[in-house]
Amino acid sequence: MLLESIRMSWENIINNKLRSFLTMLGIVIGVASIIALITLMQGARQSISDQVSALGVNKIMVTATGTFLKQGLNDDDINKIASLNNISGVSPTISARTNIAYKDRIRRNVPIQGKNEQFFKNDNTLLRDGRVINILDIESKNNVALIGTNVINDLFYGENPIGKEIIINSIAYTIIGTLNTTTAFSINSNNNLVIIPYTTAMKTLGVKNVVNLDVFLTDTNKADQSVNDIKQVLSESFNYKDDSFTVFNMGDMIQSFQIIISMMSMLLAGIAAISLVVGGIGIMNMMLVSITERTTEIGLRKALGATPITIQLQFIIEAIFLSLIGGIIGLLVGSIVAYIASILIDLGFVITPSTIGLAVGFSAAVGIIFGYMPARKASMLNPIDALRSL
Description:
Helix content is 57%, strand content 17%. The protein is built from 13 helices and 10 strands. The chain has helices at 2-15, 17-55, 75-82, 117-121, 135-140, 149-155, 198-204, 223-237, 250-293, 295-303, 308-344, 353-379, 383-387, and strands at residues 59-63, 87-102, 105-115, 127-130, 144-147, 165-168, 171-179, 194-197, 212-217, 246-249. Strands 2-3-8-5-7-6 form a 6-stranded mixed β-barrel. Strand 2 (87-102) and strand 3 form a beta hairpin. The longest helix has 44 residues, at 250-293.
């Protein structure tokens, strides 16, 4: 009985190609939407997670605006923080914007950052070519620089910038390295950036104190204690004025980002699932029309001894076939759309077995749920009433 129902259901789908296509269309669109959205969200999630993680789960960010009497951190404050337990290193950041030039080419309002060797030691993904800033550059206040992709394209198009000199604030800086390109989903973009030693930046940019400081931890499990230790040092330095500084644990921010991204993924999947429900309603409507068209066939089968269960099984199987075929087509279409979109917006293409299982399983469930009512209606037709149309 089951094999016969499967055969008849398949033959009816093949013999009514246009009607079957229109019935599946809603499922195709729904599944394609789910696959494309979830796949793109997974790619974005991976990219953002990588970028946030690159900021450092082992990093504490200190911003010390200071007070009227004392602004920013001096060398003594930085050394005290560096000597605390569980601190593997500190990296001051000096930030400014200015024009830079190479020969007759000028790039205006370029972000300049002063960093030290610890900054590069704790992130090995920054360097593309050349070398990073080292301790000798810091101690000697060398005029060296690393530049981002957009700076290279504007000033050194077609040239290797390593070893060339750029002018920053009328001072020549030798380019010792280039920075890796960051994507559109990067938290911090390096593409327009120029990095120089922070000691050089303080000397040439006229900065007297450090406002921003990255503190790297040896053991992230002791991050809370380290935060308290840093706050104690800063409180003593700024005469216990609480509004003179902020201390932020990057590990907390990374967890918050991951929760937000997971919620966004679920929300988008829910929105896409609505189109599957609409597709299921389309299946139900088309099958109700099909039952009306096939009243005579149903009446003849019942008159020849077909049971209501047999009739119901045939229509449910037909609905499942339509849903599964639509789901597979939607899976292929959605994957292609997601792949093209991931290339255009520079995202990783990530499609998981769970995503495939969700799409196919959901489409099969839609076929069963929305195919049940038409199947039940067909099974309850009175053979005498059905045969009156002959």
